[in-house]
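Hello Y.,

Per our agreement to keep a running log of every chain we model this quarter, I'm adding this entry. I've kept the format consistent with earlier entries: sequence first, then predicted structure.
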Amino acid sequence: MLVTWKYRPRNTFIQRLDPRTRFIYLACIIAALTIPEIWDYRIILPLFLISLTLYLMARIEWKDVRRTWLYIVILVFFIVGLNGLLSGRGGPSSVTDIPSPVVFTLGWVPITVSKIWFALSQVTRMLTMAIPAIMIPYTTDPNIFGTAFRRMGISDKVSFTMDLAFRFMPTFARDLTITMDAQRARGYEMDKLKGGIVARIQRLAPLIIPVVMQSTVTGEEVIDAMDLRAFGTRPRSWLKELHYEARDYFMIGLGVAIFITCCVLKWGFGIGGYFVPEWFTQFFV
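Predicted structure for the entry above:
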């Protein structure tokens, strides 16, 4: 299974934003939660609601993102959340240091109220950062990724590399889908694979080899085209032009304000550290 995204023109507030604005806002949210190490739910929950509101404003169809959300759920809930629940690792040491009632024991591992709250906080924290990131590929025209990075001050080579990277996965997924359809038309069984891991890999060989070869050929064609245009010998011009508007300044200002507020609350007032609210502990006492 591959994650691919489908860009669809939508007349929404999010899609009308300059692509640089989305990257800057995402960077501000990640910095706000990670640099001052925010774990206080009174700060995380409002930021999560803001991210969720922006996601709903983007009006991205569920059929386009259901596979992406599947991977996000597996990563956040079953890896990050489960790790926090069982070990309390990945966060402040106070998760395991503070006295906390034991709710139940899973094997020999005690599951405390502190670990449960930390797992919930960690999941909410990760989703707050993941939701703005999910919106970027589904609301940004693939043709302006390179322009966006270049206008952010990144070099031509890196900008073009990022542009190709954002285009590679959808192209790779499209080639794989075409190859799978062609093999099915020839009667090749792919939906109900039997046997062990080695047998399944052998059955997938008729899919992997053509797709890898096609990707290699496509890469060579891109390299030849860039060489013919003397790419890298001098600064390049970009066809698309990007300009900030009032809505972009608003979103950038919001992101910067969130970052500054988190820093002031944590380092100025000592608010933002990890603690278990009394009302949550009462549920298990």
